[in-house]
């Protein structure tokens, strides 16, 4: 009898411990620690660090997507590493090195396929999201001499599709991954010089690629791809003085709010506001520096902007109602990335050179929390799992 009672107490203690360790996946996020090759798993409500995962290779340009159940984070490293992280067990579930130089990735609409865009060798590879088995390779071949192009701006799109841009080829590719072992590719050529990054509108309809080699954007309507790619804003800034570009803007940080697209101007101290009905320029909003990320609060009322060196200690906030800058903050040295809480009451800032994360209240603009981090860059929350193109 005593043995039975003892066993029961032990079982209850184990069960109690397990319950104490339970965590909700919707409350989690990942912070990239770029120089150490590590990530932090964080609680986004407290906020607090839960664990640190090591051995993830070169994370100097790392990005993350999440499984649809929000349990797993897929980390794309600059060294071609693809790492599947179990956010509940604080460990690497699987890891492969699939290329020599990778720039990012996406997860399919059904959550079963991971796509990776590569610089070296140029192309896109598709993987099984559960096992990381390679399903297909799509070399980014272009021209009569079959050169390989760097692939950028890879996003997921409705209909089990992916869209990407080919930098040297001046092309946009629409990849049909319904059969991921035999994907179909529709190629749009001569879209503009050097598409360098892209965004997908929140409804999954429009794919807009920035052009580094000329003015304007390349726009593809995924509802009507047969109409081809059109160039928009090609007259913007054509008579302006050309300024040096200190850091390329990230178009995944562009944003659409209501009827407007907010675009970081390449090499200029301004954000462009574009009417998405006719793709005309509405306003040029002057800013403190060259914008990198231009990110909307989930309710669309505010747009937060960070900047390239030498102004990367600054963050500015645009009020969408009036299309004016309403707040300038100085969070610390080298603010590299911003991520809003799912409903937007808070924003997390990666302050690289101060080795910390700063959390701000988006209504009062007060700093509410600080978390230590080793040279943090990207911040990614699991609510991204339920968004198109993220």
From TrEMBL:
Q: What is this protein called?
A: Protein nirF
Pfam families noted in UniProt:
Cytochrom_D1
Q: Does the keyword Signal apply?
A: yes
Under InterPro entries, the record lists: Cyt_cd1_C_sf, Haem_d1_sf, Host-pathogen_enzymatic-act
Whether Oxidoreductase counts among this entry's keywords is no
> What keywords is this UniProt entry annotated with?
Signal
The signal peptide here is 1-20
């Amino acid at each position: 009898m005593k043995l039975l009672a003892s066993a029961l107490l032990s079982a209850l203690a184990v069960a109690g411990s397990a319950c104490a360790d339970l965590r909700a996946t919707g409350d989690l996020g990942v912070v990239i620690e770029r120089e150490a090759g590590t990530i932090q798993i964080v609680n986004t409500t407290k906020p607090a660090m839960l664990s640190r995962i090591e051995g993830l290779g070169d994370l100097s340009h790392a990005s993350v997507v999440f499984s649809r159940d929000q349990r797993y984070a897929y980390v794309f490293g600059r060294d071609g590493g693809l790492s599947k992280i179990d956010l509940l067990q604080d460990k690497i579930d699987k890891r492969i090195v699939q290329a020599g130089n990778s720039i990012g990735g996406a997860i399919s609409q059904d959550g079963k396929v991971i796509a990776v865009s590569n610089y070296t060798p140029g192309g896109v590879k598709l993987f099984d999201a559960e096992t990381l088995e390679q399903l297909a390779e799509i070399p980014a071949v272009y021209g009569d001499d079959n050169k390989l192009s760097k692939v950028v701006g890879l996003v997921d799109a409705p209909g089990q599709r992916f869209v990407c841009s080919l930098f040297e080829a001046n092309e946009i590719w629409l990849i049909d991954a319904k059969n991921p072992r035999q994907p179909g590719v529709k190629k749009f050529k001569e879209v503009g010089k050097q598409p360098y990054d892209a965004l997908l509108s929140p409804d999954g309809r429009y794919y807009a690629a920035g052009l580094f080699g000329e003015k304007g954007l390349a726009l593809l309507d995924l509802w009507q791809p047969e109409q081809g790619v059109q160039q928009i804003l090609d007259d913007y800034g054509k008579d302006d003085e050309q300024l040096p570009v200190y850091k390329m803007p990230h178009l995944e940080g562009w944003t659409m709010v209501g009827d407007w697209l907010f675009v970081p101007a390449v090499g200029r101290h301004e954000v462009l506001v574009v009417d998405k009905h006719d793709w005309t320029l509405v306003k040029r909003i002057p800013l403190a520096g060259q914008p990198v990320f231009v990110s909307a609060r989930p309710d669309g009322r505010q747009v937060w902007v960070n900047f390239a060196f030498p102004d990367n200690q600054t963050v500015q906030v645009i009020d969408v109602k009036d299309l004016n800058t309403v707040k300038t903050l100085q969070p610390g040295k080298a603010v590299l990335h911003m991520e809003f809480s799912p409903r937007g009451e808070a924003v997390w800032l990666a302050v690289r050179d101060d080795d910390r994360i700063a959390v701000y209240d988006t209504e009062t603009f007060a700093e509410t929390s600080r978390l230590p981090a080793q040279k943090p860059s990207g911040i990614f929350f699991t609510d991204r799992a339920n968004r198109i193109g993220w």
